């Protein structure tokens, strides 16, 4: 499991900034304060590792990594993502592995990296360097009657969830590890992937049944849904909104990810009711307990609360959960982006509550009270 990530001169982080990592890591804060930069740094690390692995048995130690179109990256020009005029390189450090990313003058959409580490040792540590890599972008595929089947071997849901239906069809009869199985209802005991996906989906979006199949001659995977309470037949996903399509890849990735690997997920709460947001937080924490290191970017206090509930139910330790609050602070006229780790105690209470941290409800209620007084 990775312990810390250090970022310097990348996007909003001009100064060296450290993010402490645990089994499950929550990145919270307003828009454009650096949360996505953490996810993107992890993706760049993955790409560096893949290049190092590709040239493992050669004398080549310098590689160019792409800033766009790999794992959903869209970083643009290398000069535009450097935040300090006084520093030439971007520095990324994950545990003991530190890299300098240098601009390539003739190719502004690439950066050069020199590797000085043993690739076999990196692979043995797993995490970002695991056999498979799992990342779900905030912009996932919405409702579709079908998805195209990729010609390559499928071992994940894809960056946008574009492989989710086919993955469920291919692996649906396989067994899910006991520690990842749904444990909140003793009557739900079948441990196949298809059933476990159904159990967890029902926990997050109650009353929905899924049916999937592959049409290999057309190279498509189909999905249809129904609500047994309405006594209707299976219908198009378009009749059920975005929530199901957005959350299914999250569930499948959690249930199928290799133990010891990292799962990056942006906005798992998208298109979910607050209860569903809490329950997806619970699910992600349960997967972290089962050995998947999870890094979550979210705007939802419900996701955080669901994680805290799961922590108490599953006897997680406070250090297993890393809550990172991203904000902009002004000191003596100087504006800088900061990351503050908010510790939890054994009762899973937050030990600090900085200004701007999930306090909008309190702010709105205060404004309502003031407006009501003025109306009298």
Automatic annotation (TrEMBL):
SUPFAM superfamilies: P-loop containing nucleoside triphosphate hydrolases. Residues 232-304 form the ATPase AAA-type core domain. Residues 317-368 form the DUF3696 domain. Gene3D superfamilies: P-loop containing nucleotide triphosphate hydrolases. One of its GO terms (molecular function) is ATP hydrolysis activity. It holds the Pfam family AAA_21. PANTHER family: ATP/GTP PHOSPHATASE, EXCINUCLEASE ATPASE SUBUNIT. This is DUF3696 domain-containing protein. It comes from Schaedlerella arabinosiphila.
């Amino acid at each position: 499991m990775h312990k810390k990530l250090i970022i310097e001169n990348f996007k909003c982080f001009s100064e060296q900034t450290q993010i402490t990592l645990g089994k499950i890591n929550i990145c919270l804060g307003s828009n454009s304060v650096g949360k996505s930069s953490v996810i993107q740094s992890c993706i760049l690390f993955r790409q560096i590792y893949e290049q190092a692995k590709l040239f493992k048995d050669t004398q080549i130690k310098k590689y160019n990594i792409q800033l766009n179109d790999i794992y959903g990256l869209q970083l643009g020009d290398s000069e535009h993502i450097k935040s300090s005029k006084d520093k030439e390189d971007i520095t990324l450090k994950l545990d003991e592995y530190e890299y300098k990313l240098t601009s390539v003058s003739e190719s502004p959409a690439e950066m050069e990296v020199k590797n000085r580490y043993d690739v076999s040792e990196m692979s043995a540590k797993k995490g970002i360097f695991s056999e498979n890599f799992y990342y779900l972008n905030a912009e996932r595929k919405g409702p579709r009657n079908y998805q195209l089947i990729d010609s390559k071997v499928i071992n994940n849901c894809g960056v946008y969830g574009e492989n989710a239906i086919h993955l469920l069809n291919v692996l649906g009869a396989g067994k899910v590890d006991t520690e990842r199985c749904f444990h909140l209802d003793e009557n739900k005991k079948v441990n196949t992937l298809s059933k476990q996906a159904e159990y967890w989906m029902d926990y997050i979006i109650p009353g929905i049944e899924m049916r999937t199949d592959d049409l290999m001659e057309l190279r498509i995977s189909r999905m249809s849904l129904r609500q047994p309470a309405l006594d209707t037949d299976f219908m198009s996903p378009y009749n059920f909104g975005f929530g199901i399509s957005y959350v299914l890849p999250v569930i499948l990735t959690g249930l199928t990810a290799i133990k010891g690997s990292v799962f990056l997920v942006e906005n798992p709460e998208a298109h979910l009711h607050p209860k569903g947001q809490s329950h997806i937080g619970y699910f992600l924490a349960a997967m972290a307990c089962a050995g998947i290191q999870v890094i979550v970017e979210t705007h939802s206090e419900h996701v955080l609360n669901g994680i805290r509930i799961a922590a108490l139910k599953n006897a997680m330790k406070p250090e297993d959960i890393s809550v990172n609050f991203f904000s902009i602070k002004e000191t003596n006229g100087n504006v800088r982006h900061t990351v503050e780790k908010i510790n939890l105690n054994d009762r899973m209470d937050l030990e600090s509550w900085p200004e701007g941290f999930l306090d909008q409800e309190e702010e709105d209620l205060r404004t309502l009270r003031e407006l009501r007084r003025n109306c009298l």
